[in-house]
Structures are given as C-alpha cells and as structure tokens.
Amino acid sequence: MNAPSSARKTWHFFRAGGFDQVHLHAGADLAALDRLDQKLWVALACPTRGLEFDSRTLELLDTDKDGRIRAPEVIAACQWACRCLKNPDDLLKGADALPLTALNDATPEGKQLLASARQILVNLGKPEAATLSVADTVDPARIFAHTQFNGDGIVPVQAAEDAPTRAVLTDILNCLGAETDRSGQPGVTRAKVDAFFTAAHAHVQWRQQAETDPTILPLGEATARAAAAYQAVKPKVDDYFTRGRLAAFDERALAALNRPESEFLALAAKELSSSATELAGFPLARIEPNRPLPLTEGVNPAWADALATLRAEAVQPLLGDRAALSAADWQALGARLAPYQSWMAAKAGAAVEPLGLPRLREILASRAQETIVALIAQDQAREPEANAIAAVERLVRYHRDLYQLLNNFVAFRTFYARHDLAIFQVGTLYLDQRSCELCLAVDDPGRHAALAGLAGTYLAYCDCVRKSTGEKRQIVAAFTDGDADNLMVGRNGLFYDRQGRDWDATITKIVDNPISIRQAFWAPYKKFVRMIEEQVAKRAAAADAASTAKLEGAATAVAQADKPKPAPEPKKLDVGVVAALGVGVGALGTAAGYFLGLFKGLSPWQAPLVILGLMLLISTPSMVIAWLKLRRRNLGPILDANGWAVNAKAKLNVPFGRTLTGVAKLPPGARRDLADPYREKPSPWPKLIVLALVLWLAYTVLDRRGYLHQWTQGRFGQPAAATTAPPQAP
Questions:
Q1: Are the beta carbons of 709 and 718 closer than 8 angstroms?
Q2: Helical residues (DSSP H) of 250-326, grouped into ranges
Q3: For residue 634, what is the DSSP state?
Q4: Which residues, 6+ apart, have CB-to-CB distance to 644 below 8 Å?
Q5: pLDDT per residue over 611-639, tens digit each?
Q6: Residue 180 forms beta bridges with which residues?
Q7: Do the beta carbons of residue 53 and residue 406 sit within 8 Å?
Q8: Residues 6+ apart with CB under 8 A from 648
Q9: Does this model's pTM top 0.90?
Q10: CB of 189 within 8 A of CB of 379?
C-alpha cells in the first residue's frame, strides 16, 4: 500500500507499449515515489539473478535477502538516497563518482557519511580527493587494511598487543577455524571464543576423570593400544565362542560350523595369501565344543597378526602370558577394558584435544579469555563508524545505478525508448538473417515456456556454449519480424552477450506464434505447396517402390527361366479403380469449369480484381487469427516466467516488434551484381501460363464484342449484341 499524504503530487506520464508510464524527470519524483499509486507501476518485483545489472547493487537493495527486489525496498532506497544528498536531482545523472560536496551534511546521518567517506579516502591513500567512486568502495579489505578494529565483531591475531594472547588466538583459529573480517584478515568472533573455552573446560574435566579413577586407564597410556587391539578382533572372537557353545549343544552342527569341505576345495584352486579376503570369512580357529581360542598355533592365517597384537597389547599386560583364551578369560578381558571404553564414548572437547592437556590447563589458568572478549567488545564499539563506511558504498552505488533501475522497474522507459537495452535483455541472437534483441536468460526452458507461451510471441529457446572456456547458458529469443519458414529445432546461430562475447547458439525448443501479417497472408499458399510437395514425394516413392518390385520380378523370372511356368491368369479390370478415376476426373473438371465460369462475362479490368478477391478470401482467416494474436502480444508473461511481477500489459505491437528484430537489408549505397553464374535456368512454364491467360482474356473480350464473329464471317464466336434503339416520340 502507498503511504497516505496530505500533499498532492503532480506526476508526468508518457505512453508506450499501449499504456501510460510515469516519467521520473526530477529527484523530487524519486523522493515522492511512495505517493505514486502502485497500480501505475510497470513492475512490482523482479529477481536479483539473470539481469544485466550490478549484482552488488541488487544485493544492497535486497534488504531481506530473499533474492527478489520488491516495491517497498525500491521506495526505501529512493527515500534514503534522497535524504543523504543535498540535491536529489544528482541521482538522475547516473554518475560513477560521487562528489563529497553533494552529501547532505545538514543532518547527523549526512555528517557521519561525509566523515566516513573522508576516512575511506584516507585509508586508500587519497586524503585530498574530492570525489568517491564505486571502484573506491568495491574492496573492503583495502578500506580497512590499516585498521585493527572495524566494527564487524571479528578480531584478528594482530589485534592483540601481547604474545601470549596472540598465541591463544592462533590456537583458537587452528582448532575451530577462522572468520574473515572486513580487512580480509582471519580472526575470531565471540561465538568462537566461547565455544573454544567451553570445549577446553569440558576436555580438561574429562581427562581428570581418568586421573582420579584408576580403572579407566589400567595400563596408563598403553590402555588405548590394548583397547584398539581388543576392538579389532571382538566380533570374530565373539563368533568363535558362540560357535563353540553351539557345537557343545549339538555336535551335529560341528561340520557346518567349520565350513563345508566344498568351500575349502574352492579355495585350494586359487593362489592364496594370508591376507586373502576369502580366508577372513572363516572362523578364527577350528571349532570344537567349548574349546579355548588359540592365540599362536592353529589360527586362521588372515587373523594371525591381529591375534598376536591382542596377545601382546592386552592379554599379557592384563591377564598374564598365555597361549590360549577361554571364554571366561575373554569376558574378564572385556570387563577390564569396559571403563576405558565408556570413558572414551563420553569424550568431550575433541576439537581442542590436539593442543594437549598441559597447554589447555595453561590457557585456562591465564586471563586470555577475558582479554580476547575485551578486544571483541572494543571492535564492536566501532560498529556505527564501520556501518557508516558501508553506507557510503550503498550511497555511491545508488548514486550511479538507482535511476537506471527505476527506468526498468517503475517504468519500462529504457526498453521502449530503444536507446539502450533493458536490464532483462542479455544480448543479441543472430540467426536466419535476423538479429533478435529481446533475449532473456532462462534456467528451465520447459517451465519458462509454460507461462511465456501466453505472450503470443514467437519464442526460440537456445542452448549457448563457449567451447573455448566450457561455459554454458540458456536463453530465449523473441522473433518479432520476418517469417518462421526456416526456424526449426536444431538450427545454429551466434549469440553475443552484453560484454560482447560470442556464444554458439542452437535452437532446442520453439513456441510457435504469428510473427507478422505478411507471413499470415502467404501461410495458406505455403501450406498448399507443402501438401503438393508431400503428395508428389509420396507418389514418387510409391513409383520407385513399384519400379524396384518390377526389377526384382524380372530378375526372378530370369533366374527361373528353365522352370515350367504356370498358365497366366487372365487380367481383370478393377472396376473400383476405374470408377474412382472417373469420379476424380469429373471432380477436377467440375472445379475447373466452376473457376472458369467465374471469369466468363467479365471485363478485362474485372478479372484481376476477381483473382485478388479469391486470394483475400483464402488468406483472410489466417490474417485475422494472426492479427488477433499480434494485438495481444506482450512482454508480461515472458518476464513473469523469469520471476518478475509485471503490473501492466506491456505490448509488443507490430511497429515496435520491427525494432526488436532486425531483418537483413543491404546497406545504403551498396552496389548489386545480379549476374549469378550458378542460377537455375528459368522455367518456361510461368511465361507460357501468363501468355495463355493473356490470350484467353483477349479471346473473351474480342468474342463478347463480336469481333471474332465479324472477322471470321460467322465461322467463330458470337455476333455483337444488338443495340436497342430508344422509342420514338409520337
């Protein structure tokens, strides 16, 4: 909704595309944009992608970061920019450089902007400069390169004055990663500092549990190796003792538990090694009822090393030296290592563990946390100043780009003025001796065509590729002049983007709509010619097939000449074919007689009019349909399919369409050499047909006036009609 206002504003409008559009000709118009009824805006929203517009400016305009620019965001940007300048008319210039004298220093916000702009120039080494350009603000790292505190809440290592604090900051970066501040340096935030010290406290407390509970580390630092050796074989050892208990339950299962002989025979046929995966699936040792697990002799070769490690790292230190393990020994070993495994499962502060326990205790015993938090607070205190510097970048970009956006959003003045391409036009497609300037970027041609087809415009979707770089993109081009005779899927062209780079373009999809009235006029005749060509092609193919069949029959007859031939059947006349031919010939004769009858009794000047009338009669339906579609041809659905919210029926009528699609024409003053050495020899039939028509018309005229009857003394033609004399007065 528009904000209410008691002050009345007089707006100027211009008409283009079949509707009225606001003419923003003064800075006051931009400042009062909230008072322009949004029903009169051409667009109410547009995407931030797929536009030929500065992406950083669009990012600044998109305050809610949803990837779309809406009318309230445009209004807010205009009002803020107008407040920050002494003369809002400066926004209409679209200049890249913003003079410092143009800033409105009569307000606290303007004073802060002016001070920040001067600080930027000082940081860039240009303290005497009187203007600030977009290039000066494009790299924040240069602006904040000489400042340790820039208001972003990120403190780099260099911000600390003492070496111990810098060492702690380095530890935090190594453990939790870095954030990049406005100067481009790696640093830490308050959240990372809190997370680091929380993890450090948790890890130290976790390690203290092992120091106070001797059951957790029964072997000291070697407990980790014992637990690893235990876990490496635990599933297989559990499997071994379970199989032994099952064999004790029923000895009939013993053969199956030790794997059948056929599997051993299959292994014997292969070249084996102790690390073969087939061996790893077999039991650790031969299964017998309640047999202890041997650790040295008679074990599966694939597990021999793991069992040896288990014996050396866990069994001998915890249970004593032994060559086999009973089920009870295995359970006892697991019980000795269970506290360590539970303790490891509850490990806390793993992110800071690489620093080691002594270093963590040293950090926690110092005042590093308080010092770093104070540095972050000192940095955040500069936030208003840093935000003002960021606001300077916003104002410099609005000073250059905002008016251009308004003429492609509130009004489509750029598009209809044709002095420059609109922000949604991504380049020019050259194809079929035409240049199409209404080209838009698309992501999904199928989805785009579902809505864009309602625009009543002939659209060609193209895949564009630059093979030198491997870049790919998809576009849709509107053909608004010429004809569609040679436009088809698979045709290749050349696309030039707004940067002048060339792309190979191939048509992949077409949305067919009329292009011009001229095309619609000739469409019925072209269809008729195509039908004749198709019929001729079919008849030629049938004749070729029949000829081939005759040749095959002749070849077969020659090959079988020595065999007796059956008596030939008498040929029968196909009465149906004869009847059909008679009906066809009669229909053609009737049609010819009807059309010739139309010209009977006509004067010479009337015959061309009749021919013209017949042509109009045939072409009028196609032309009417094309006219109706061309009347409703508009830009709205094409843009809406790309995420715009077009608020008007932006027409693409025939005169305007001709400006969007350029048809090939010889340049002024060009010389033409019409002698074509490879031209086809002209057929005599058109001349003969014209001559026959002229002779027929002459015969008709001479016959009606009785000249033929008179010249041949009554042998040909009809006598001249007698003129009836007027009655005599009595």
A1: yes
A2: 254-257, 261-268, 277-280, 304-310, 316-319
A3: B
A4: 43, 45, 46, 47, 424
A5: 666 666 665 666 666 665 666 788 999 99
A6: 186
A7: no
A8: 17, 19, 21, 42, 636
A9: no
A10: no
